[in-house]
Write a structure and sequence with these properties.
rod-shaped; 4 helices; mainly alpha; Helix Hairpins
């Protein structure tokens, strides 16, 4: 056996031996009788080989389609993850804004409370303390302005919407992961030639 034929499958080696043995029995390949059975066997072998090639081509196309589906599922998953991360960033920014607005509201409440105390003291001292009344009035005005400026706190509803979108995106991510896991990987089974 030559070096080129050393990597052949066992069935191929057996087939080569059978052919060589038949040629040896008949003396030469020109002495082999060509019968109907031999011609039918050749046609049958050729049609089986053609069918094998067609099946291999179909399997390759099927594997390519499966690969594309897996890639699409991965791409959808990446897009869903990106959307989720964007929503998380928006949520963090909204939480920081809410925290700063709550601090501003606390400051405004303290200012109004202090102004109320000064106003009560000025009223209890009587008419002579007009300056304290004016200071209390300015403090009350500043506190009210701060509270009015913090109307943005109503934007917390926006945060609720972002949370809802985040939950929806999480559902999409879970669905994409499930569809990526549901795409079966076909077994790679090689059929040996004769």
């Amino acid at each position: 056996m030559t070096k080129e034929r050393g990597s052949l499958a066992e069935r191929s080696i057996v087939a080569i031996r059978v052919v060589k043995e038949a040629i040896r029995i008949f003396g030469s390949c020109t002495n082999i009788p060509i019968t109907k059975e031999l011609l039918q066997a050749v046609k049958r072998a050729h049609s089986e080989y053609a069918l094998f090639l067609e099946n291999e081509c179909k399997q390759a196309l099927h594997e390519e389609e499966e690969m594309k589906k897996r890639e699409q599922a991965k791409e959808q998953q990446r897009a869903a993850e990106k959307a989720k991360n964007d929503l998380l960033e928006q949520l963090k920014a909204q939480e920081k804004l809410e925290e700063s607005q709550l601090q501003e509201q606390d400051t405004a409440r303290e200012l109004i409370s202090e102004a109320s105390k000064k106003l009560m003291e000025a009223l209890q001292q009587g008419q002579g303390n007009v300056q304290s009344v004016k200071v209390a009035q300015v403090m009350l005005s500043a506190g009210n302005e701060k509270l009015n400026a913090n109307k943005q706190l109503a934007d917390i509803r926006l945060q609720d919407k972002i949370c809802q979108k985040l939950h929806q995106q999480q559902g999409k991510v879970d669905n994409a992961e499930a569809s990526a896991a549901a795409v079966p990987t076909p077994p790679t089974k090689k059929r040996k030639l004769h």
